[in-house]
UniProtKB/TrEMBL annotation:
<dbReference type="GO" id="GO:0005737">
    <property type="term" value="C:cytoplasm"/>
</dbReference>
<comment type="pathway">
    <text>Metabolic intermediate biosynthesis; 5-phospho-alpha-D-ribose 1-diphosphate biosynthesis; 5-phospho-alpha-D-ribose 1-diphosphate from D-ribose 5-phosphate (route I): step 1/1.</text>
</comment>
<keyword id="KW-0547">Nucleotide-binding</keyword>
<dbReference type="InterPro" id="IPR029057">
    <property type="entry name" value="PRTase-like"/>
</dbReference>
<keyword id="KW-0418">Kinase</keyword>
<comment type="similarity">
    <text>Belongs to the ribose-phosphate pyrophosphokinase family. Class I subfamily.</text>
</comment>
<keyword id="KW-0808">Transferase</keyword>
<dbReference type="GO" id="GO:0006164">
    <property type="term" value="P:purine nucleotide biosynthetic process"/>
</dbReference>
<keyword id="KW-0545">Nucleotide biosynthesis</keyword>
<dbReference type="GO" id="GO:0004749">
    <property type="term" value="F:ribose phosphate diphosphokinase activity"/>
</dbReference>
<dbReference type="InterPro" id="IPR000842">
    <property type="entry name" value="PRib_PP_synth_CS"/>
</dbReference>
<dbReference type="Pfam" id="PF13793">
    <property type="entry name" value="Pribosyltran_N"/>
</dbReference>
<dbReference type="InterPro" id="IPR029099">
    <property type="entry name" value="Pribosyltran_N"/>
</dbReference>
<comment type="function">
    <text>Involved in the biosynthesis of the central metabolite phospho-alpha-D-ribosyl-1-pyrophosphate (PRPP) via the transfer of pyrophosphoryl group from ATP to 1-hydroxyl of ribose-5-phosphate (Rib-5-P).</text>
</comment>
<dbReference type="GO" id="GO:0002189">
    <property type="term" value="C:ribose phosphate diphosphokinase complex"/>
</dbReference>
<feature type="domain" description="Ribose-phosphate pyrophosphokinase N-terminal">
    <location>
        <begin position="4"/>
        <end position="119"/>
    </location>
</feature>
<keyword id="KW-0067">ATP-binding</keyword>
Length: 310
């Protein structure tokens, strides 16, 4: 069988090491040299000729994280790697997936074009902001689902009278996956924005009186929507409110908002490292899921078999 090589970008070493440990294969030797003017040059210090190469790098800000991934892919392609997979636990710019106003870019498509142009043969990622982003690529996309991690965790918690909630209309499908699996109700927090990252109005659609509510979303950025939804749900009679958000972007004043909110717990994945510790934030590991997905890709086995049937 063709040899597997796992490499980490500098921003995802904490994650890549865990993935490699679960896979049972050490990370490959790659160094990123920085020039005095800020330019970078990844150097792969071992042969990758004919190998299955996996580059692990989340593309959250700064933009150098994306550029580093592109340059690593190019280096492997020029070194005659047999098959290159970009493992992108958090796919940055995924929220810019359409023209929602005149004269704006569809940035997620541009990023897809860049990754393909660099030489990637396959993409592996988790919880895209919209499933349709897979269609921006003309190469295979393995779209992993965090339900495979969250559902076993929730089963261990043994919560009573659970209701799942979507913090906005766009996330209903994601929340419904959990409500169907646990056979419990679903409510919606309908929000209206006047501008990006600022919620003007929010209404709860459904009854949450006496319930343990779990908000479900793909990411948490400024935490404004999440905290406002938690506060309103408590006002509507919810017994407790937790939130599950795969990608902890947590920009601006997010940590303070979460600390001062009615949220009992925010459960996130390790696709992005936390900037600071928080008593309310619990991090679940995705390393085992990614390692199994990498193995199944290499061995030409099913990726969907790794998901929890909702």
């Amino acid at each position: 069988m063709v040899e597997v090589k796992l490499f980490s970008g500098t921003t995802s070493e904490y994650h890549s090491k865990s993935i490699a440990d679960h896979y049972g294969h050490p990370l490959g030797d790659i160094k990123v040299h920085k020039f005095s003017d800020g330019e970078m040059q990844p150097v792969i210090n071992e042969s990758v000729r004919g190998a299955y190469v996996f580059f692990i790098q989340s593309t959250y800000p700064p933009a150098e994280n994306l550029l580093e991934l592109l340059l690593m892919i190019d280096a492997a392609k020029r070194a005659s790697a047999g098959y290159i997979t970009a493992v992108i636990p958090y796919f940055g710019y995924a929220r810019q997936d359409r023209k929602d106003k005149p004269r704006v870019p569809i940035s997620a498509k541009t990023i897809a074009n860049l990754i393909q142009a660099a030489g990637a043969d396959r993409i592996m990622t988790m919880d895209l902001h919209a499933d349709q982003i897979q269609g921006f690529f003309d190469i295979p996309v393995d779209h992993l689902k965090s339900e495979a991690i969250y559902i076993p965790y929730l089963q261990e918690q043994q919560l009573d009278n659970v209701i799942f909630a979507s913090p906005d209309v766009g996330g209903v499908k994601r929340a419904r996956t959990y409500s169907k699996h646990f056979r419990c109700p679903l409510v919606i927090c309908d929000k209206y924005r006047k501008q990006a990252n600022e919620v003007s109005e929010m209404t709860v659609i459904g009854d949450v009186d006496g319930a343990d509510v779990i908000l479900v979303d793909d990411l948490v950025d400024t935490a404004g929507t999440l905290c406002r939804a938690a506060n309103i749900l408590i006002e509507k009679g919810a017994k407790s409110v937790r939130a599950m958000c795969t990608h902890p972007v947590l920009s601006g004043d997010a940590y303070n908002k979460i600390a001062n909110s009615k949220l009992e717990e925010l459960i996130v994945c390790d696709t992005i490292p936390l900037k600071e510790p928080s008593e309310k934030i619990k991090v679940l590991s995705t390393a085992k899921l990614f390692s199994r997905a990498i193995r199944n890709t290499h061995e030409h086995r099913s990726i969907s078999a790794l998901f929890v049937d909702g």
